[in-house]
Amino acid sequence: MTSSSTLGTSSNLPSLHPASKSTTRVSPGAAHRSGWRRIVAAAFTERSFDVPPDRVMHDRIMHRIGLALGIAGLIAAVVELPEIAEQGRVIPLRWTVFEVLLAFGFFPVLAIVSVTLSTRAIQRTAGIAAVSFLAAMALTPLAYNHPDVEGSSVWLYRVLALGVLAAAIAWRSRLAVGYLFVGSVLSAMANMVVIEDVTFLASVGDFARALGLSALFLWCAIYTRAAADRVDRESAMESSRAALVAGAAARDRERARFAALIHDAVLSTLLDAARAGTESPVLREQADRTLDQLDRCRVETEPDRLDAQSAIGFLRSAVHEVNPGIRFTAHRWSGLDDLHLPVDTAGTIAAALAEAARNSLRHATVVGREVHRRVTVTISAGGIRVVFRDDGAGFDMDRVPADRLGVSVSILGRMRQLAGGAGFVESQPGEGTTVTLVWGGDG
């Protein structure tokens, strides 16, 4: 059963099970297999420094490209249907149906996924569509015993760009380029096997045409994704700069206000007291007014506020100062993201979030596997919700020593003192830890 802590819990994240100090011997065979796994994973995923921290534009582009490619696959299937029927006369019907399903079957699925699911789901579906299309191309020579089709090319040859675009959506550019070359070779071989009177020189020309045309589509897809990533990086940098400038300006104004108060009230009162030498009702009133001003200065809320974009940049900077490898995601609901977050409130939330990240890095390590950490910020209805989650060692809240103050003071205590704020910690041994920070307005 999951243990949870609310604002009043006196607990501490350092009770997370620490990593064992003993070393484990790894056999050469296991190390070799692990190396191959890393190579394959690197081929199918993007490098961390290529991934913008907040991929709003990238996700939007991926959804639109996925939808367009799914619809294009349907249109291509309809357009090629007469040629498919003509070339399928010389082979059993089951081969034709199987090839059509392999080549076009996943494109309608891609269109639906692009409308309803996440970018990761779009990439996985596009990867399946690309592999399925390549399998259809590879099976084409097996379906025909000898060249027995009239025409200039097999029908799959003309729609190779669909598979290449699916690969460009699903994988990194290097793997997509490799897919382009393999697909061009297979399409030329299919023409040689299926079409009558195709010479070797003609096959070389088929390969060059397929490669050139599909390379144009591939370049457009890669450039579009790169441009979207560049926009996201620039937007994140601008948000971070805006938050830093707003915070610096607020601090400067606060220093100036406090300096004026010290000069105009405190020092003036002390100087009058030194000159008077005796008790005076006027001096007593002046001292009372000065003390009231100091009290107001202590409790007044910072007037400067951050909008949604600046608040996201502010929190992202706080997390990435602790560790740039922590994944950061932000969600803003259109029409409901009119946030006015006071700078000092943002600073409190950022400090609590940074402490949660530090505790996770310090105590959530699991021997033998990588611990994933993620921050999700959601802005809606004038409030903000920040969730830090890891899949690390976890801990039992009931066994946290009372003298450990990391969670109870540095995270929950900060949020408890924040007007309109709340904080929660949930954890279970072996299942990671979740820290939730919410702010819904000034009380």
Please, could you describe this protein's structure?
Keywords: Membrane, Transmembrane, Transmembrane helix. It comes from Nocardia callitridis. This is Histidine kinase/HSP90-like ATPase domain-containing protein. Residues 350-438 form the Histidine kinase/HSP90-like ATPase domain. Helix 2 (56-87) packs antiparallel against helix 9 (200-276) and helix 9 packs across helix 11 (308-322). The chain is an alpha+beta fold. A hairpin with a 2-residue loop joins strand 5 and strand 6. Mean pLDDT is 76; it is low at 1-26, 39-53 and 299-303. It has helices spanning 28-44, 56-87, 93-104, 106-116, 119-143, 155-158, 160-170, 173-194, 200-276, 281-299, 308-322, 343-363, 412-416; strands at residues 3-5, 305-306, 327-332, 341-342, 373-380, 383-390, 421-427, 433-439. The chain is 61% helix and 10% strand. The two termini are 32 Å apart. The strands form two sheets. It has a six-stranded mixed beta sheet with strand order 1-7-8-6-5-3. The chain contains 13 helices and eight strands. It is elongated, with a radius of gyration of 32 Å. It folds into three domains: 3-18 and 305-439, Heat Shock Protein 90 (2-Layer Sandwich); 48-234, no CATH class; 240-299.
